[in-house]
Write a structure and sequence with these properties.
mainly beta
Length: 111
């Protein structure tokens, strides 16, 4: 059984997470600039927390919403404006934090 989530290491390198994808519970892609969101993230089956400050483009990729264990997503100071309707697939999502007033989630998204 894994340690409590707050005790888990927050990974910050895609190269590092790909070496041990099943051990990644927390990932920060903050500050990284991508033309496209990395496909490799789909290999992180145990990912629970994702930090995307100052990252990605205007839309989050739909594949992000196939991550069944994802509980928390933090987006700050990014350009994300579009949240795909597939967010409803994240049944374990407890916390969505973004500081963009134009992007909001209604309580109906959480159940």
């Amino acid at each position: 059984r894994p340690r409590q989530l707050f005790q888990q290491k927050t990974f910050t390198s895609l190269a590092e997470v790909l070496q041990q994808p099943d051990s990644v519970y927390k990932l920060s892609l903050s500050g990284m600039q991508f033309k496209k969101f990395p496909k490799e993230i789909k290999k992180l089956r145990n990912l629970r927390e994702l930090y995307l400050s100052n990252t990605v483009g205007e839309a989050l990729p739909k594949r992000l919403f196939r991550m069944k264990k994802l509980e928390q997503v933090f987006i700050q100071f990014g350009e994300v404006k579009i949240i795909p309707k597939q967010i409803k697939r994240l049944k374990k999502l407890k916390r969505w934090k973004n500081n963009r007033p134009r992007v909001s989630l209604r309580p109906s998204f959480f159940g």
